[in-house]
Write a structure and sequence with these properties.
The chain is an alpha/beta fold. It folds into two domains: 4-94, no CATH class; 102-323, 3-Layer(aba) Sandwich (Rossmann fold). The chain is 38% helix and 17% strand. It has helices at residues 4-23, 28-38, 41-48, 57-68, 74-83, 85-94, 105-114, 189-197, 204-219, 233-239, 264-271, 287-290, and strands spanning 119-124, 138-140, 145-146, 155-157, 159-161, 173-180, 224-226, 245-251, 276-281, 302-306, 309-314, 320-323. It has a nine-stranded mixed β-sheet with strand order 5-12-11-10-9-8-1-6-7, with helices on both faces. A three-stranded mixed β-sheet has the order 3-2-4, with no helix packed on it. Helix 11 (264-271) links the parallel strand 8 and strand 9. Helix 4 packs across helix 8 (189-197). The radius of gyration is 20 Å and the shape is globular. The chain starts with a helix and ends in a 5-residue tail after the last strand. Bound molecules: S-adenosylmethionine.
C-alpha cells in the first residue's frame, strides 16, 4: 500500500492539532480555517507535494495571505490551490516563518535594565532585527510605564504578575548586532510585506506595532549578519566593545536547531564567554531549564531564563510576564 493515505492523515492531524493547540483562543479565523484544511483533500495533497519542512500551518497561512493580499478563507484558499498553485508554492519554498515580534522586548526589558550599563546586544535568530532595539520602544507594564524618546515609536503592553523587577529607565545600548540564517531587510517592501503576512488576522495591535517598529528601525537599521548561530557567533562576540555588558539573547529560535543535542555547542559557546545569556523559548527547547522552574509550564508560554536559570513564563508574543524567579 502507498504511504500517501498515511501521510495525508498525518498532515490532517497536524492541522487539527494546530487548530486546537495554537489557534484556539487566539485566532478564531485560523482555528476554523485550519480545521477546514484538515478536511480538504485538495489542499492536503497540495501540501504533500512540498518538501516536508514546508508543510507547516504558519507557512501556508502566511504565504496564502501574501498571495491574496488578505487572510484567506477556505473557499479562496481552495481556489488559490487550483488556480495559483505555482505562486503559492513559490512563496512557500522561498520563505520561512521568520516572524519578528518586537513586543518580545517587553519581557526582556526587566533583565536588560537590571544589568550593568551600557549594553552590547547580540541577538541570534534576529530575523529583521526588531528585537535589537529595546531602548527605542516604549512599554506599558500596567503599574509602570516607560515612554519612548520618539513619540511615534510603539508602546508595548505587557501584563505582569509576580515580583518582576520592573525597570524605571530604558537600558543604554551602545552596540548591537544580530545573526540570522536569512536576515530580513527592514528597508525592503517585499520582506516587510512577508513579516506582516505572518501576523494572524485578528491581531490588529500586533500589526500596528510591527509597522511602527519598522518605521523606527528604518531610521537607523539594526545590523543583522548572515550566519548560523552554531558556527558564526564567536566572531561577532569578539567585535563587541569590552566596556559594555555583552548580552547574547534569543526568542523563538532554538527550536529550529535540531536535533535537541545540537543546541548544546551554542550553549557552551555563550556560557564559556563573558556574555550574559538570555533565553526566551518554548519550555521544551531546554527541558533541563524548564525542570528547574517553580511550577510546571502553563499552556502556550515561553520560558525566560538568564544564564540557564529560569525567571518567568512569558506570553509568546511578549504580551505577558509571569515572574517566579529571583528578582534580579
Ligand atoms: C521565529 S523567528 C524569531 C525572530 C526573532 N527572534 C523574534 O523574536 O522576533 C526565528 C528566526 O531564527 C532564525 N534561525 C533559525 N535557525 C537559525 C540558526 N541556526 N542560526 C541563525 N538563525 C537561525 C530564522 O531564520 C528566523 O529568522
Amino acid at each position: 500500500m502507498s504511504e500517501a493515505p498515511d501521510e495525508l492523515a498525518r498532515l490532517a492531524r497536524r492541522y487539527r492539532t494546530f487548530a486546537a493547540d495554537e489557534a484556539q483562543g487566539v485566532s478564531p479565523h485560523y482555528e476554523r480555517l485550519t480545521q477546514e484544511i484538515a478536511e480538504s483533500g485538495v489542499i492536503l495533497r497540495f501540501l504533500l507535494d512540498l518538501p516536508a519542512p514546508r508543510r507547516q500551518p504558519n507557512l501556508l497561512l502566511g504565504a496564502a495571505t501574501l498571495v491574496a493580499g488578505r487572510p484567506p478563507d477556505i473557499a479562496s484558499l481552495t481556489d488559490m490551490v487550483a488556480s495559483r498553485a505555482e505562486k503559492l508554492r513559490a512563496v512557500m519554498l522561498r520563505r520561512t516563518t521568520q516572524t519578528n515580534e518586537p513586543a518580545r522586548c517587553a519581557v526582556l526589558l526587566p533583565l536588560l535594565a537590571a544589568l550593568p550599563q551600557p549594553l552590547a546586544l547580540i541577538e541570534v535568530g534576529a530575523s529583521a532585527g526588531l528585537c535589537l532595539l529595546p531602548d527605542r520602544y516604549g512599554y506599558d507594564f500596567g503599574e509602570a510605564r516607560l515612554a519612548p524618546a520618539d513619540p511615534a515609536a510603539p508602546v508595548f503592553r505587557c501584563a505582569v504578575t509576580g515580583p518582576a523587577p520592573l525597570p524605571t529607565a530604558l537600558p543604554r545600548v551602545t552596540w548591537r548586532a544580530g545573526l540570522d540564517l536569512n536576515p530580513l531587510d527592514v528597508a525592503s517592501d517585499e520582506d516587510t510585506a512577508w513579516l506582516e503576512a505572518l501576523i494572524w488576522p485578528e491581531q490588529d495591535e500586533r500589526r500596528r506595532n510591527l509597522r511602527a517598529a519598522l518605521a523606527v528601525a528604518r531610521r537607523d537599521p539594526p545590523r543583522v549578519v548572515r550566519g548560523d548561530l552554531l558556527h558564526d557567533l564567536r566572531p561577532l562576540m569578539v567585535e563587541a566593545p569590552a566596556d559594555a555588558t555583552l548580552v547574547v539573547f534569543h526568542a523563538a529560535v532554538l527550536a529550529y536547531v535540531t536535533p535537541p543535542e545540537a543546541r548544546q555547542p551554542f550553549v557552551d559557546t555563550v556560557r564559556g564567554s563573558r556574555a550574559v545569556w538570555i533565553s526566551n523559548e518554548a519550555p521544551r527547547v531546554f527541558p533541563d531549564i524548564a525542570a528547574r522552574a517553580a511550577q510546571p509550564a502553563p499552556h502556550w508560554r515561553f520560558l525566560l531564563a538568564v544564564d540557564g536559570e529560569p525567571r518567568a513564563w512569558t506570553g509568546p508574543h511578549g504580551q505577558s510576564l509571569e515572574w517566579f524567579g529571583r528578582i534580579a
